[in-house]
Structures are given as structure tokens and as C-alpha cells.
Design goal:
Elements lengths: L1 H19 L29 H17 L1 H6 L4 H12 L18 H13 L3 E5 L5 E5 L1
Antiparallel strand pairs: 1-2
Helix pairs in contact: 1-2, 1-4, 4-5
């Protein structure tokens, strides 16, 4: 059960990261306004450098372990929680803090704690290396 949750969490995390990260290595990237295709337009999860994929798995696993009781409280599946983890830690100004559902006012504190915990893990971003693999780096 835990492995399945972790795998789904990572799928959400990486899927979100690829979907919203602009591919500045692509020919259609416009440096003047920062627009261009996203990484998911040209790459997939299998394109992530294996060493970085291992570290990402460890980081996600640590976040889940450290926040398991709060993650069990919120009405979000593993994939959605992974998405919120990426958004929170990547500094997009959204994530767990925006996932709060007014139908569950008693969970507002849990979402705030999860958002702060995600931000405390450090901001991460993705880039394409010269070898055409995706890497995650710390801001």
C-alpha cells in the first residue's frame, strides 16, 4: 500500500513539474518574455536523470514520512498531494495552501502546516541538461 501511495505521489509531483516548467532549451523558447513549450511537450518522467530520480524519490518519501498524519487527514489522493508538494516547494505561491476546501474548515490548519513543511524542504526547479536528461536543482 505504501509503495503504491509513494509511486502515485511521485507521479503527481513530476507530472506537475513537467507540465508547468518552461523548456528553455527548446528552439521555440522566447527569452524576452520567458514563454515557450513546457517540458512535458518534449519530455516525460523517463527522461529524468536516474540519479536525480532517485533523489526526488527520497525527498518525496521523506516528506510523506515526516507529514504522514497530516496527509492522512486531508481529502486528497496521493497524486494530488504530490502535485501540491511540487507547487508549494517550487515557490509558485500556491500548493497545499490553495488546496484548502471550505467544506472541511477543520482541516485549514493541516493545509497550512503542510504548505510550510513543503516550503521548508527547499525550492526546486527542473532543467534540461546537455545530455537531454531532466535534472532537478535547488534554488
Amino acid at each position: 500500500m505504501y509503495k503504491e501511495y509513494l509511486d502515485d505521489f511521485i507521479t503527481g509531483y513530476l507530472g506537475c513539474a513537467l507540465a508547468i516548467t518552461i523548456d528553455d532549451s527548446h528552439a521555440d523558447y522566447n527569452p524576452d518574455n520567458g514563454s515557450g513549450p513546457t517540458l512535458e511537450d518534449n519530455y516525460g518522467i523517463d527522461d529524468i536523470n536516474p540519479g536525480h530520480a532517485f533523489r526526488i524519490r527520497q525527498e518525496c518519501q521523506s516528506f510523506i514520512n515526516d507529514n504522514e498524519s497530516l496527509l492522512n487527514l486531508i481529502p486528497a489522493d496521493a497524486k494530488s498531494a504530490g502535485i501540491q508538494f511540487w507547487l508549494s516547494r517550487a515557490g509558485y505561491g500556491c500548493g497545499f495552501c490553495d488546496y484548502y476546501n471550505p467544506k472541511y474548515p477543520e482541516l485549514e490548519a493541516a493545509y497550512k502546516v503542510l504548505h510550510k513543511a513543503a516550503m521548508a524542504t527547499g525550492e526546486r526547479n527542473l532543467y534540461v541538461g546537455d545530455d537531454q536528461h531532466i535534472y532537478q536543482y535547488e534554488q
